[in-house]
Structure to design on (112 residues):
């Protein structure tokens, strides 16, 4: 995988956040599932963003499904403020990757 792959997965999450006509908590869940953010290897994330990306995944994973219910039900329990923080993290990491890719293209370098 590469940085473009990571950016594409984050883009899917952002599109889901923006386009779905659902409460934010459900859009976060759908974006998380559709984008397959868990499949991204931390080694594919630039060193300067690994901690942010790790914390984002931890935020998403700390929401344990309520017994007998799925992740979606548990996400609905999350406050709007908590969901907003997760959405902002997704957008911020996507933005930073765009900056890195732009710099990389301008210089002809590759970023680990």
């Amino acid at each position: 995988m590469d940085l473009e792959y990571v950016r594409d997965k984050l883009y899917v999450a952002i599109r889901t956040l923006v386009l779905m006509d659902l409460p934010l908590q459900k859009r976060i869940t759908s974006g998380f599932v559709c984008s397959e953010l868990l499949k991204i290897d931390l080694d594919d994330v630039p060193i300067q963003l690994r901690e942010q990306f790790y914390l984002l995944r931890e935020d998403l994973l700390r929401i344990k499904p309520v017994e007998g219910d799925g992740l979606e039900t548990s996400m609905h329990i999350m406050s709007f403020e908590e969901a907003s923080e997760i959405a902002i993290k997704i957008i911020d990491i996507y933005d930073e990757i765009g900056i890195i890719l732009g710099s990389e293209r301008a210089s002809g370098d590759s970023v680990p």
